[in-house]
Amino acid sequence: MIPKEAKPNQQETMTKPQPLSLSSLPDEILENILARLSKWNYPNLSLVSKRFLFLLSSPELYTTRSHIGTTEPCLYFCLDDLPIIPHPKWFTLWMRPADETLEDDDEILEDYSLVSVPSCRHHLKHVPYSSTVAVGSDIYVIGGPYKGPPSSLVCIFDCRSHTWREGPNMLVAREEAYAFHIDGKIYVMEEDRKDDNWMEVLDIKTQTWSCLLGHGATEFRDDWFLVNVFRGQIYVIAATENFAYEPKEGTWEVVETHECYGHIDSWCEIEDVMFCFTNSGHCMWYDTESGEWREVKGSDMEVLRDTSEHSLAWGCVVEIVNHGGKLLVIWVSRYKTKQTRRIWCGKKRHEGEIWGKMEWVNEVLTVTNSFNFLSCVLIMI
């Protein structure tokens, strides 16, 4: 008798479970994973699938990055270049992830560039240089430009979704004002205005403007001065004195006297230390004890002062910013080539000196002679 063929075990015929993949994870878990990666990997990851593109474009992803502490500094530029770029256009500085920046102690990387930022809004006709200010992941564009029509308009650019929205109008139409974000408020002052409407402040939470008193400002605003935020205060470097603004009292107070600082074009703060660059290519830091500007030391700092046509010594400093605790310098070369250089400063001190390490230098954009550099804003995103 021929035995009947045994039926295969039903369990053995079941398909073996496939190993888990990223695409099989719920959106919440996948979003949390993506939030832990460097933002500079997102352009490539967005090409994986439509689902990845959707998650990487979601504002919730950036909220998660903020909650888990994985935000990164991101620099936004705005410029026009007639007739090639007839309207103000925004760019972001594309950079390699922070843990890949330095591979060798003596290496200076050259693989950074400006990438155009898409926007769903009609073109802004004017972008004021000094009154664009970062608030979280937003850029506030406030008032009118230099030698342009005064304006009270406020436009807000969301750097997560690259969309625009209207903000609350200022109480006074202004031209090329200064704007600074401190403790949940935006302080705005207009250099050439001499009346009592010189300053006003926006409460970001309530989105309401209020007038501010500026007693003591007449001592410096009729002459040369530079203004920025230093140690949580609006701080002015004037011809022979430094001033700090006290918002509770509505007064400007002299905090220091010094010799003339005519060689300074712009400055910023890193770890409670002022840094500046001169057009001769020297990186300087301010010694508050002696009241003097001192040079940042470093064997490779000569890159800033070499004789090539693209060196800082041949150009003009446009802006310097605190880029995640490192000094980022943007300048225009003699031949109108946009450049950026970043220097690691303030991390090492020796006998009252500050040492710096050149991290990278690169040409990031070529423009024509007619270009206008309109804004430079650092966002944590």
From TrEMBL:
Residues 1-21 are annotated as: Disordered. Residues 8-21 have a biased composition (Polar residues). Pfam families: F-box, Kelch_FKB95. Residues 19-65 form the F-box domain. PROSITE patterns: FBOX (PS50181). PANTHER family: F-BOX DOMAIN-CONTAINING PROTEIN, F-BOX/KELCH-REPEAT PROTEIN SKIP4. This is F-box domain-containing protein. It comes from Brassica oleracea var. oleracea. The lineage of its organism: Eukaryota, Viridiplantae, Streptophyta, Embryophyta, Tracheophyta.
